[in-house]
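To whoever is covering the structure queue this week,

Two jobs came back overnight. Logging them here so there's a record in the thread.

Job A:
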Amino acid sequence: MEALRQYLGLEKIVVIGSSYGGMVALSYAVRYQKNVSHLIVIATAPDSRFLQKAQAVLAEKGTEEQKAIAQRLWDGNFENEEQLREYFQVMGSMYALNYDPQLREKAWKRAIVSPDAINEAFGGFLRSYNILDRLHNITAPTLVIAGRHDWICAPELSEEIARAIPNADLRIFENSGHAIAGDEREVLLDAIAGFLVYKR
C-alpha cells in the first residue's frame, strides 16, 4: 500500500478496508499514520481471537456442510479459485442476512480473488496477528463499522477497536452480518460519505 501511494505521488490518503482488508488498513494506519487522512474499517478484528470466536459461532449455528467446508479456511488450504468460490457459496447464509445466490453470482464475476492470499493469512500470520496494543497510536479520524450479526468478526471486536483508537466513531449496523455492503449497502455508503464530509 505504501509503495503504491508513493508511486501515485499521493499525499495523505483515505484508507478503507473490510474484513481481512480491515486488518491490513489498521496495520497500515499504525505504521504510516502520517500518510492517512481518514481511516475506515469495516467488519474486522484487532487480533487473532476472532478465529476462535468464529469457530464457536459456526459450531453453534452452521450446518454440517458449512462446518466441513470452513475447515479449508481454518487450515488455509484452498487449492484454487473454484474451491474458494464453493466456500463462499456454501457459507453465504452465514456471511449475509439477506443472502441472494443470484446476486452473489453477479458479484463474483466482478471480484478478484486470491486463494494464495487467503491461505497465507489463515494458514499463517493471522493465527498470531495482534495490533490491539498499538491502535492508540493512530491519529487520523477513524470510523469503525460492524454488523450486529457478524459471525466471523464479532461486533464486540469492533467495539474494542473503537475504544483503543482516540476519538474513533463506532457504528453498528443492526440488520447486517459480515457482508454489510450486501445487507445494508445504502446505509453503509451514507455513513462513509457523511464521515468523510464532516470529519475534516
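Job B:
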Amino acid sequence: MNDETPEIRSAPPPGDASPETDAGHEPVAAKKKRKKISAKAATAAIEERIGHKFADPALLTTAFTHVSALKSARKRADSYQRLEFLGDHVLGLIVSDMLYRAFPSADEGELSKRLADLVRKESCADVAKSLGLLDDIKLGAVGASASARLRKSVLGDICEAVIGAVFLDGGYAAAAQFVERNWTERMRKPRRPLRDPKTVLQEWAQGKGLPTPVYREIERTGPHHDPQFRVAVDLPGLEPAEGIGGSKRAAEKVAASAMIAREGVAGGSNDG
C-alpha cells in the first residue's frame, strides 16, 4: 500500500477570499492602485476642462460634493456650500471689473443690470454645462430620476464653488482667468434685454426735449382668450412705429423697440 497519499486541499468557500485578494481574485493592492490611477485621471480630466491644475486636489473634490453625499450632517462644511459662498462673491468682483473696463461710457445703472444678468444662477449653470461638469457632481443615494434633477438644480452652485476653489488654490489671477475665459463672450452679447425699451425711448425723448411717448391701440384681433394687439407709438416730428403682441404692454414694447431701432437710439440694443 502506498503511504504517500496525495494531499487534498479544499477550496475556500465562496466569499472567503484571501486577505490579499478580492472576491474576483484580483490582488487588493493592485485594485487600490487601479482605483487611485482612475481617480487621478478623472481629476486631471476635470482640471483640463476647467483650465486650472490644482496644487490641492481636495479643493476640487469638495467643490463637486453635494451635502447629500456626506455621511454626517455635521460635516456640511465638507460639501461645496462654503466654496459656493466664496465663489459667488469672487465672481461678482471679477465680472464687475470686466464690465467697468469693457463699457467705459456705461452708467452705474446699466453696469448693475449687466452684472445681475451675468452672475445669476442660470448664467452660472450655462457655464457649468458648457464645461461638461454635470456628471462630475457627487450626490448621495437618490433615485436615478431624482439624481438627474438634483444635478441640474445645483449646476449653478457647483460653478460658483469651482470659482471659489480656483481662487483658494491659485489666487485672484487664476480665478480671473477662469471667469474671463467663460464670461467674456456672454458679457459682450447678453442673452436678455438689458432695459425696458419703453424706458429707453422715454429717456431718449426727454434728452431731445420731446414729450413722453404716446401709445395708442390701433387694432385688436383674435379670439377673446388669445387676442393680438397692434399698437403705435407717437413722438412729435417722428413717424409712428408699430408693434404687435399678445397684450397691450407687449405690443407697446415691440413698438418702442421698433422706434429705437429706426432712430438708432443708443442703449436700445444688446450690443451696449
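Note for Job B: The two ends are 104 Å apart (CA to CA).

Please reply-all if you pick these up so we don't duplicate work.
Q.
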